[in-house]
Amino acid sequence: MSRFPSNDRLTSSLLNFVQLATTPCSLAEAEHYCRRLAQTHYENFTVVSRLFPRALHQHFCNVYAYCRWADDLADEPIAGTQPLALLDWWESHLNAAYAGEATHPVFVALRETIREFELPKQPFADLLVAFRRDQVQTRYETLADLLTYCEKSANPVGRIVLMLGRCATHLNLQRSDSICTGLQLANFWQDVRRDYERGRIYLPQEICRRYGWDETHFATGKCDPQFRDLLQPLVAQADAMLAAGRPLIRQVSADLRLPVQLFIGGGQAILAAIRRNRYDVWSRRPTVSRLTKLQLAATAYLQTIWRRG
């Protein structure tokens, strides 16, 4: 049994927060904590993890636990503590892990992943840059500005995956970045309404003005011809970025081809759903059906087998 709390909110109390940071633990306890965290906080993790090599399962859990904690620290303030201060605290533990002084269970486990795969600190630190930016920026003036956010929030995860698969060549990293950014843009365009209700607009302000869309239109929350014209090229660009990354499937190791293909296919399926809705992301959220998900998985699996042949 783990000695650490298993509550749904990682940091629901300051006591638990401090306990996790200061209670010494063994590597086995730390790895168990990360596995349990991944399996209880992400309902599809068990399914997704089966797509990856079994030998990497624990390492993916360790990376996921790092990201999950950072996300919760940014979104769930503790006892009035500011998220920016909490993210600084989390980065201090990241620095300690790279100095060989990990104490938090996530970093005790992650330290082994860092050591085995010689992972650089930059991708982990970049994620914290994105979480900090979320605290201070809720609008993006240009698409170029939004893409700089994706560089820190989405691309580092793909880069870490390639490093775990020992196939992080320069060209592969570029293609991974294209996939990750395209997938994040697809999620942004799918969730325009949800994000606005949370106080965020990821549609570039410059483009919104070009089509006559301002804050009053967002508040009304109704799709009109101008909004369709606004969203259509953005959806096309996200689709093009996903397609540009497709050659990565042939370049990664055989046991990573299926998940990479499914990530691309999943993003493209979201974009197809937006098109089917005629770019109306206001009246209902475009989603990918369970049947489509199964078809994506089956198609990707068969194509992976054929490529091995």
Give the gist of this structure.
With 309 residues, this protein is an all-alpha fold. The chain is built from 17 helices and no strands. The longest helix has 23 residues, at 254-276.
Please describe what this structure looks like.
It is a single chain. The termini are far apart. This protein is 71% helix and 0% strand. The model has no long low-confidence stretch (mean pLDDT 86). It is mostly helical. 36% of the residues are buried. The chain has 17 helices and no strands. It is globular. Helix 4 packs antiparallel against helix 5 (83-98) and helix 7 (122-136) packs antiparallel against helix 9 (155-164). The protein has helices spanning 14-22, 27-41, 45-49, 57-75, 83-98, 105-117, 122-136, 143-153, 155-164, 170-190, 192-197, 205-210, 215-220, 225-244, 248-251, 254-276, 290-308.
Entry keywords:
309 residues, mainly alpha, 71% helix, 0% strand
List the helices and strands and how they pair.
Blueprint: H1 14-22, H2 27-41, H3 45-49, H4 57-75, H5 83-98, H6 105-117, H7 122-136, H8 143-153, H9 155-164, H10 170-190, H11 192-197, H12 205-210, H13 215-220, H14 225-244, H15 248-251, H16 254-276, H17 290-308
Helix pairs in contact: 2-4, 2-6, 4-5, 4-6, 4-7, 5-6, 5-7, 7-8, 7-9, 9-10, 10-14, 10-16, 14-16, 16-17
Radius of gyration: 20 Å
Q: What is the mean pLDDT?
A: 86
Overall outline: globular
Summarize the biggest pleated sheet: none
Class by helix and strand content? mainly alpha
